[in-house]
Amino acid sequence: MEDLCWRLAMDAWRARRPRLWELRWRVAWRAEREVLEAKQRRLGAMANQELAEL
After folding, report:
1. Between the CA atoms of 46, 41, 11 and 2, what dihedral angle is there, to the nearest 10 degrees?
2. For 6-30, how does the pLDDT look when each residue is reduced to its tens digit (9 = 90+)?
3. Per its UniProt entry, which superkingdom is the organism in (predicted)?
């Protein structure tokens, strides 16, 4: 379920891509991507842990 939420958040993030000249918004947009990528890494680590316990 969390993976689906992450994928939906990534789709929404991509849809909000600012124009090249909107520098302030691009900085915030890229920072949001870093947060989403960190969440992806946490989800991957949790999945790997669960698989290792099988």
Report:
1. 20
2. 999 999 999 999 999 999 999 999 9
3. Bacteria
| Angle 31-39-33 from CA coordinates, rounded to 5° | 25
For the chain, give the mean pLDDT.
92
Gap between the Cα atoms of 52 and 17, Å rounded: 37
Q: Are the beta carbons of 6 and 38 closer than 8 angstroms?
A: no
Burial of 13 (C-beta count, 10 Å sphere; 0-12/13-18/19+): middle
| Distance, CA of 10 to CA of 1 (rounded, Å) | 14
